[in-house]
Records
---
Amino acid sequence: MSTGGDMDVTCGCGHHFDAWLWQSANVTTNPELKTSILNGEINMVKCPSCGSKFHVEVPFLYHDMSGKEWIWVYPLGHEKETAAIHAKVGEMWDRLTGSMPPDLRESLEREYKVLVLFGMDALVGRLRSKSSK
Ligand SMILES: [Zn+2]
C-alpha cells in the first residue's frame, strides 16, 4: 500500500500552501511511483504564489515486494540522528513482522533488506545502480 496526504508546505518566498506528499510507496503495487522517484518528481511541489518548484523531504518508505527491499528515506540533515532512526525503523519492522505467522516472519527476516538512507537522491542513486547491472 502507498500512502500520502496533504501537508502544509512553506516556500522560500514565505508562502504557505497545502500539497500532496507521498509518505510511502509500494512500488510493486504502484510501479508508477518508482518512475516518479527515478525522474525526481516525487514530492516535488510548485508554489502557487511565485511558481518555483522544489522538493519537500519527509520521512519516506520505499517498499519493493518483488525486490524484497524495505527502505526508509529520511531527509538530508538527519544523519546525526542515525542511531535513533535505526532504532525506530527496527521497531516498525518488528511491529510489521510481529503480526505474521512465525514461518513467514522468518523468511521475511532472512530475505528482506531493511535499510535507512538520507535524502531522496541516495535512493535514486541506489535504484539506478541496481537497474543498470
Ligand atoms: Zn513561493
---
Amino acid sequence: MKALKFMTVLVMIVFVAHSCKSDKKEQLKVEDTVSTVSYNFIEVIAKDFTFTVDDTISSGWSTFRMKNTGMMDHFFLLTKLPDSLTIDDYLRDVAGAFGVTWEAIKANKPKDEAFGLLGQHLPEWYASAKAMGGAGLISGGETAINTLKLEPGYYVMECYVKTENGQFHTELGMINPLIVSEEVANNEPPESNVQITLSNDSLQVDGYAKLGLNVFSVYFKDQSAFGLGNDIHIVKVNDSTNLEEVSQWMDWSNLKGLVSPGPGIFVGGTQEMPTGYTSYFKCNLEPGKYAFIAETPVGRFKTFTVR
Ligand SMILES: [Cu+2]
C-alpha cells in the first residue's frame, strides 16, 4: 500500500501546484480526485517460487508491473472467486482437482480419462469463478506490464508453470489472495499501437509492432465457458525455434507442457478474461523475430518481425 499512498500524495501535490496558477475549474478536479486513488503500478515480484504483492488493491483500471527475478518462467492468472470463498477453498477444491488429473496424466492414463477425473473433482462453485486476466509468460529477468479492469471482490493470483520434476508452481507457493476493494482507482487504459482480437476460432492482429515500447490491446471476442480460455503470449523466435513444439509446450496437460525453463524467451502477454473485456500489455521489443502464441488452442500462433 505504500506506493499507493505515495501516489495519492503526489496526485494531490500536482493538483495543488496546478491550482496555484488557476481557479475554480482546477479546484473541481481536486475534489474529484480526493475520493479516488491513483497510482502508477501495482508492483509484483515473481521469484522461484513466490509472489510478493500487496494484499489489497483498488478496483477499476490497474496496471501490474511484475518483475521476474527468478530463473524459471512465470505468469500470473487472476481468478475471481464466488462470494465468501477464499484461497483455502481454491487450494483444496480446485488445485486439488487439477492435482488428481495431473497424477493420472503422469501415470499415462488416456487424456479423456484424466479430464473425466477433473470434471468429477472440480467443485460446483468453480463454474461461477471467473478468470480475470493477468500477466502472460515471462522468462527470468523479464518484466511484464499489464493493465486491466477489475471489479471488487476476492481473487487468487496464481502461476501454474511446472518444475522439471512436474510440480505446479501453485503447489510450491506461487498463489496469493488479492482483495480488490470498493475504492475505485482514478486510472485510464493506455492507447494501443497493436490491437489483438481473440475468438474461439481466430487470432486477429491489427496494427504493427515497432522497435521499443509497444502497447498491445487484447479484446476477448469469445471466451470458452469452462476450462482454459483464449489468451496470448509473445515468444522470441530464432532459427532453431519450432513453433509447433512451443505450442505443444504451452499445454499444461502434456507431460513436458509448461515445464520451465521453456523452449524460448517469453516477454509478455495476457491471460484470459471473459467475453467482451479488453486488457492491455506493454512490451519493449528489440529488433528480431517473435510470435504471438496461445496456451489454448494448441497450434495457435502467428509470427511477426520488429526491425
Ligand atoms: Cu511460476
